[in-house]
Amino acid sequence: MVLEGVVATRRAGGAAFTLTIEALRLEAGSLVAVTGASGTGKSTLLDIAALARRPDNATVMAICGTDAAALWARGAKDALATLRARHFGYVLQTGGLVPFLSVGANAALAQDLAGRRDAAHLVALAGTLGIDDLLARMPASLSVGQRQRAAILRALAHRPALVLADEPTASVHPDMAATILALLADQARQAGAAVLLATHDAPAARAAGFHEVPLQPGPASSRLPALLPA
Ligand SMILES: Nc1ncnc2c1ncn2[C@@H]1O[C@H](COP(=O)(O)OP(=O)(O)OP(=O)(O)O)[C@@H](O)[C@H]1O
């Protein structure tokens, strides 16, 4: 993924907040943690990276060789949805699993949407995450830590190029947070996926091997400084 000169504005009432991404290039195996206090724009940045929010401006917005800026410009919503399903995996704060599907069915759905069904890969990945005995369970019957492992399974099951993780450890105990972040980092690296993590917990992210990029807050705005590949 390459983002350059991307600007996004959020407006509420008379107030506006502007995020500027100078340059962000994520390659296979990149582990990048965007950090900042509450309200500095971490979620806005992930929304932009996830193609869930239309930018005001984008010099470059390339996802696995596709010009996403051009797709936004011509309102190609189906093509944007296809890009998302094929190339992105998501880990949200509380899992974001479909509540009426089992853990295994959640992961299989991600594979189906991406057009990459691979039951053997799903089971093997569940084994490395330590949840192969939970595949038939419903998300509501899991502990928070188990749910986040299931979310990592769902995020990686379809072999995405990029995993977006928004505060994936905010609701787990600090010891479990370290384990979850390490699992996410290890599994993504092994799969050759890049991870873009948003977190307020910079030390935990660094400990798991993430390269930290702090958002630079300004008046009613934030800036992500240029990050070139490590
Ligand atoms: N729905 C919204 N409409 C308008 N402005 C919003 C909206 N949500 C957030 N904002 C503003 O955008 C800015 C960035 O918010 P964002 O949620 O991206 O920050 P964050 O760093 O993810 O915060 P947190 O860590 O609390 O989740 C904030 O200053 C906020 O006031």
TrEMBL record:
The keyword Zinc does not apply. It comes from the Bacteria. InterPro entries: AAA+_ATPase, ABC_transporter-like_ATP-bd, ABC_transporter-like_CS, ABC_transpr_LolD-like, P-loop_NTPase. Residues 1-228 form the ABC transporter domain. Keywords: ATP-binding, Nucleotide-binding. GO terms for biological process: lipoprotein localization to outer membrane; protein localization to outer membrane. GO terms for molecular function: ATP binding; ATP hydrolysis activity; transmembrane transporter activity. Transmembrane segments: none annotated. GO terms for cellular component: plasma membrane. Belongs to the ABC transporter superfamily. PANTHER family: IMPORT ATP-BINDING PROTEIN (PTHR24220), LIPOPROTEIN-RELEASING SYSTEM ATP-BINDING PROTEIN LOLD (PTHR24220:SF689). This is ABC transporter ATP-binding protein.
